[in-house]
Every structure is written in structure tokens, then in C-alpha cells.
Amino acid sequence: MSRSGRCGVTAAVTAVLLLAAACSGDGDAAAGSTSSTTTAPSSSVPAEGRELSWEVSLTSAQRILRQVGPGSTLNYGWNELVGPTTVDGAPAQVQMLGNVDYENGTGPFFGFVTLEFGPEDVLAFRMDGEATQPAGAQGSADSEFRAELTVIGGSGAYAAASGGRGTFTGSRSAELGGQVTGTMTATVAGL
Predict the structure, then answer these.
(1) How far apart are CA 84 and CA 106, in angstroms?
(2) How confident is the model at residue 179 (pLDDT cuts 50, 70, 90)?
């Protein structure tokens, strides 16, 4: 076997041995020690943070939404929705940039939500969700939304935002691109 082949085999054996040692615990645990090590979950969800909640009533500022497929039942595109809100007594502007991929009004959407308290004071989220039509509303314009929010970060007074998660629940009773209302909540670490 060549030198490079032996090095590769040695590296693979070393990796397997390290993995086996990690899975079986440390040597003290095998000898009867009761100590253990707990690692933080990999999801980076903060255990603590500032709780924020705000109502939204958003209208479309601009959009490109297309209908394709048999009977024009497939909808895709993007929409910029904007509107005022209040967060902990402070006025703010909400901007939602949403990308949609729906069939008969149901399907995934993703995008970004920005809370702007002033030109320098911004808090940003990624949004990943699902739109559905209420029972009995097949073919209507009505939709209900549920999305997870993930903190991206902030600037100005919100520059210390270091992570967090939240939810968006809402609805629309107009055609795709129409007014969206709902509630957003988030726990933001670092504030």
C-alpha cells in the first residue's frame, strides 16, 4: 500500500475510534464515575431573551405574482407588504418581503420581516411558513398563515440582537397580494 493510502486508512481508523469514544462516554464514566457532561442543543434557540409582540395590518407596496398551470391554479412570485405597528409602546414600520409558491391558495412561503423603529434602529427576521385555505373555502381568496420567525440581527438600539425565534399567525380575506392581518411574537436574545 502506498504512503498516501496508509495515511488515509490511519485517518479513517482514528476518526472511528474518536467517534466510538465520544459515543461511549469518557473513561471515568466507564470506571463508575457519576459525573456527566450536558451539551447545549444545536438549534441556537436562546433560553432567555426579550419578549416582543406586535399586531400587523399590511398592504402591498409592490409585487410580482404569477398564475400558471391548468386553470391558473399555481401561483408564485413575491410581494412587499408594509404597515405601521407598535412594539412595547414604540411606533414602528413593518416591511414583509414574501415569496410564495401556492397551489389553489395553499403552499409554502418564505421571506423577511423588518421592524424599523427609526432609520438606524432595525430588527430583522427570516420567515418560513405555510399558507392554507380555511375549511370550506376552496377556490376562494381566503388564506390563513402560520410561520416561524428566526432573528437575523439588528442595528442601532437593536445591534445586540444575537438570535431568537418567534411566530407569525395571520390571514388574508382578499386576493393574493391583498391586505394581510395577524400577530407576530418573538423572543430576542441579547436585548
Answers:
(1) 27
(2) very high
Q: How far is CA 85 from CA 56, 88, 93, 95, in A?
A: 6, 10, 6, 10
Q: Is the pLDDT of residue 18 over 90?
A: no
Grid coordinates of 105: 391558495
Q: HSE, CB side, 13 Å, CA atoms: give it for residue 117.
A: 17
Strand partners, 78: 64, 99
| Annotated domain spans of the chain | 1-39, 50-189
Residue 164 near residue 52, CB atoms below 8 Å:
no
Looking at the domain that runs over 50-189, which CATH code has it been given? 2.40.350.10
Cell numbers for 46, please give them: 436562546
